[in-house]
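Dear H.,

Thanks for agreeing to be a second pair of eyes. The structure we're designing against is below in token form, covering all 263 positions.
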């Protein structure tokens, strides 16, 4: 036997599951991480009391200026992120909501992710060394490069490692520094052949760079549009695709000659 519901009764019946779903959405954990600008480190100098780049088997040069690699800090993979956290981050300029899989592509537990990031960093350091020595035609010359950067994982410091090696061994090629005495920051992976690759979290990295005094930011060309969003005042973007092109751009910037790429 069926009975007819009044309009108000029907609305009440329909509203009940909707309210329940909304309440569930508000309090349910979501597959996101909340990220913010992280530390930066000068690869030409020391980090936490340890020289970042140590070279043996070749004469190195004293450098001026800084080449700062940049990072983001994100909530750990086991941190609960709810809808209110996501909403707060959307309205903030110093935070970003990112899919957890984009921040932690390896998945797994915290220890597994740490091991993955350490492996990525080691591979990045090897590729950066090969790229720099290849660019300088110093492959197989018995030069040993040791790279140390505590508490940082992943491959996104590759470009800055390569630039640091080039600056310590060769500078701008004519006695000057690649930096021109500036604080230059950037991000980007690098392959052994010198190809620069895209990374994540660029808008947050530009904020970290400017916070720590950088006036120039090297960004993978494919991420120019991202880098321009919320770009801090006083920070110049230079898009890059290769190690050779990056060195050329820095030399042009330092000497005030030639065309410098722009986003």
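And this is the sequence the design step returned. I haven't edited it by hand at all.
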């Amino acid at each position: 036997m069926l009975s007819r519901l009044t309009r108000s009764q029907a609305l009440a019946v329909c509203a009940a599951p909707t309210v329940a779903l909304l309440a569930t959405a508000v309090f349910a954990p979501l597959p996101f991480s909340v990220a913010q600008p992280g530390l930066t480190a000068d690869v030409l100098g020391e980090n936490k009391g340890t020289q970042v780049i140590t070279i043996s088997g070749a004469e190195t040069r004293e450098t001026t200026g800084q080449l700062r690699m940049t990072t983001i800090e994100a909530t750990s993979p086991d941190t609960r992120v709810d809808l209110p956290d996501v909403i707060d981050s959307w309205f903030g300029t110093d935070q970003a909501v990112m899919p957890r899989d984009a921040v932690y592509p390896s998945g797994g537990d915290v220890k597994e992710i740490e091991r993955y990031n350490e492996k990525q960093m080691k591979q990045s350091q090897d590729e950066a060394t090969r790229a720099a020595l290849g660019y300088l035609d110093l492959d197989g010359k018995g030069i040993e490069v040791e790279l140390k950067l505590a508490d940082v994982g992943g491959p996104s410091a590759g470009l800055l490692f390569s630039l640091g090696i080039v600056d310590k061994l060769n500078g701008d090629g004519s006695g000057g520094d690649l930096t021109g005495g500036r604080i230059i920051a950037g991000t980007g992976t690098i392959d052994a052949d010198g190809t620069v690759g895209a990374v994540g979290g660029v808008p947050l990295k530009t904020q970290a760079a400017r916070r720590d005094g950088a006036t120039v930011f090297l960004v993978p060309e494919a991420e120019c549009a991202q880098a321009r969003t919320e770009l801090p005042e006083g920070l110049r973007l230079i898009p890059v695709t290769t190690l050779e092109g990056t060195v050329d751009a820095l030399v042009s910037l330092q000497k005030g000659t030639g065309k410098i790429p722009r986003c």
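Two observations from my side: The chain is about 40% helix and 20% strand. The radius of gyration is 23 Å.

Warmly,
E.
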